Amino acid sequence: MPTPHNAAQMGDIAKTVLMPGDPLRAKYIAEHYLTDVTCYNTVRNMLGFTGYYKGKRVSVQGSGMGIPSIGIYSHELYTLYGVENIIRIGSAGAIAEDVHIRDIVIGMGACTNSNYAMQYRLPGTFAPIASYGLLEKAVNAAKAAGVSYKVGNVFSSDTFYDDAGSLGDWRKMGVLAVEMESAALYMNAARTGKNALCLLTISDNPFTGEETTAEERQNSFTQMMEIALEIAE
């Protein structure tokens, strides 16, 4: 049934959902890659579409920015709509020195400064990780496409403008990139027994000031989109 955030009915959404932060990126994917497309959600302009890619039924929906937003949408997809796999396809800032603009980072784990895990009342610190089956498929698809990629830890930050300037501290721990959603997605997947993966395209480098435009992030990060579509089940 519909929720306050999603107008879809049961059956409207495929078992695998690609989830960019930007709903216009979801619209771009639906228009450029999917056939027989239907729009199942326009609530809050968090656009959601279902269609077919090479005969596979796939959905794509925006998550919004930050852990609270993707926490809501992914939880509802997993628990109310029968979704089994969510593949986040987002932009990120480079942290590691050998990560460059437009490289693809596959998030094996997600460090975070968020308190999202407090709700589980665990007697320790939970380590959010990707689902290995999806990760392995993404690596193989990236290799087959000849795409420059790296696999490792990402940092899911609650703050875009970080007053503490902490990215250098994460760099020394080998973290590859910073973004704002993956930790919550991985925790929701773990809690519900479902699957999740984060694919990121490097859009900027906070250390050098190098960056892409908003239009480029919306429309040109096609290698990441195509890997996600190829591994959709």
Automatic annotation (TrEMBL):
Catalyzes the reversible phosphorolytic breakdown of the N-glycosidic bond in the beta-(deoxy)ribonucleoside molecules, with the formation of the corresponding free purine bases and pentose-1-phosphate. GO terms for molecular function: purine-nucleoside phosphorylase activity. The active site is at 204 (proton donor). PROSITE patterns: PNP_UDP_1. Phosphate binds at residues 21, 25, 44, 88-91. Belongs to the PNP/UDP phosphorylase family. Its EC number is 2.4.2.1. Keywords: Glycosyltransferase, Transferase. InterPro entries: DeoD-type (IPR004402), Nucleoside_phosphorylase_CS (IPR018016), Nucleoside_phosphorylase_d (IPR000845), Nucleoside_phosphorylase_sf (IPR035994). The keyword Glycosyltransferase applies. The record marks 217 as: Important for catalytic activity. It comes from Hydrogenoanaerobacterium saccharovorans. Residues 16-230 form the Nucleoside phosphorylase domain. Homohexamer; trimer of homodimers. It is an enzyme of class 2 (transferase). A purine D-ribonucleoside binds at residues 5, 179-181, 203-204. This is Purine nucleoside phosphorylase DeoD-type. CDD domains: PNP_EcPNPI-like. The keyword Transmembrane helix does not apply. It catalyses: a purine 2'-deoxy-D-ribonucleoside + phosphate = a purine nucleobase + 2-deoxy-alpha-D-ribose 1-phosphate; a purine D-ribonucleoside + phosphate = a purine nucleobase + alpha-D-ribose 1-phosphate; uridine + phosphate = alpha-D-ribose 1-phosphate + uracil. Gene3D superfamilies: Nucleoside phosphorylase domain (3.40.50.1580).
